[in-house]
Design brief:
By secondary structure, the chain is mainly α. Helix 2 packs antiparallel against helix 3. The longest helix has about 55 residues. The two termini are about 40 Å apart.
Length: about 140
């Protein structure tokens, strides 16, 4: 999530960016778009990894519960109905927890992407105005 912000650049890099913005605004804008897209892609990849890890944990829990259910059915045939209900409740609880976590992660990413896009558009607008003034 910390990769959502641009990395700090050294003084020479900042001077180079300024010169590029002044003398080659189209290239500067393309570079900024590329950097923003790369950051957005990195954020999306990281979020997808986190979501997949959550799903994997859920799958493991489901497999454990299924194995427990199989053993219980073999051992406790008379109590099968009660055990099934409790296991289904646990699976439902785990699903709700997973969906809540996935929803929170998705909302965080959407907020970060929206902020990056707003910042980018604001910068792009400033650069366009500056370029128009120069013309």
């Amino acid at each position: 999530m910390t990769k959502a912000l641009p990395e700090k650049k050294g003084l020479l890099a900042q001077i180079g960016d300024f010169a590029k913005a002044v003398f080659m605004p189209t290239i500067y804008n393309a570079d900024r778009i590329s950097e923003t897209q790369a950051r957005n892609t990195d954020i999306t990849i990281q979020t997808n990894k986190e979501i997949e890890a959550s799903r994997q944990k859920l799958r493991i829990q489901e497999l454990k519960l299924q194995e427990f259910q199989r053993q219980a059915n073999l051992t406790f045939q008379p109590e099968e109905g009660n055990l099934n209900r409790s296991l289904q409740s646990e699976i439902a609880r785990l699903n709700r927890e997973s969906q809540t976590q996935e929803g929170l992660l998705n909302r965080q990413i959407q907020e970060q992407l929206a902020k990056l896009n707003r910042d980018f558009q604001a910068n792009e607008g400033k650069l366009n105005r500056a370029h128009q003034i120069q013309l």
